């Protein structure tokens, strides 16, 4: 009986420590991509923002391993999906740049989240 108490206590502590990890795993990894320094009305500015979105997708999806083809395919799909998911924000930012309006404390940031 006395030997099982420490084992049960250790099990209880371990399960409490695992609960936050499981909760955090549900939230996708995301990166904020600023475009405050870009002129999105120009081709150069739009291209630069697209490159930043692609870099952010690499950041949230990770780098592939050429040896593990299945993992490399999963990483490529993650990047493709992540970039596609960011496109509505990109289009909205470009539209705002082309037709500016007054905004108070507007954030010139896109949020790129893993797909």
The rounded distance between the terminal residues' Cα atoms is: 49 Å
Instruction: Determine the oligomeric state from the structure.
Output: single chain
Gross morphology: elongated
Give, in spatial order, the strands making up the sheet with the most strands: 1-2
Largest β-sheet summary: 2 strands, antiparallel
Query: Total number of β-strand segments?
Result: 2
Secondary structure tally, helices: 3
**Strand residue percentage:** 5-15%
Spans where pLDDT lies below 50 across 5 or more residues: 7-24
Order of helices and strands: HEHHE
Radius of gyration: 21 Å
Helix content: 55-70%
What is the averaged pLDDT score?
A: 79
Structural class: mainly alpha
Question: What structural keywords apply?
Answer:
two-stranded antiparallel ribbon, single chain, elongated, 115 residues, 63% helix, mainly alpha
Task: Explain this structure.
The protein has 115 residues and is mainly alpha-helical. The chain has a domain at 41-115. The protein is built from three helices and two strands. The chain has helices at residues 4-26, 43-61, 69-98; strands at residues 30-34, 109-113. Strands 1-2 form a two-stranded antiparallel ribbon. The longest helix has 30 residues, at 69-98. The chain starts with a helix and ends with a strand. Residues 7-24 have low confidence and may be disordered.
């Amino acid at each position: 009986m006395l030997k099982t108490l420490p084992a049960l206590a250790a099990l209880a502590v371990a399960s409490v420590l695992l609960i936050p990890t499981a909760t955090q795993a549900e939230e996708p990894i995301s990166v904020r991509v600023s475009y405050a320094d870009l002129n999105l009305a120009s081709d150069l500015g739009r291209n630069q923002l697209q490159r930043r979105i692609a870099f952010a997708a690499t950041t949230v999806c990770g780098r592939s391993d050429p040896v593990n083809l299945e993992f490399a395919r999963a990483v490529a799909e993650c990047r493709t999906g992540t970039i596609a998911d960011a496109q509505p924000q990109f289009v909205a930012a470009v539209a705002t740049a082309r037709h500016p309006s007054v905004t108070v404390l507007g954030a010139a940031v896109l949020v790129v989240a893993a797909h």
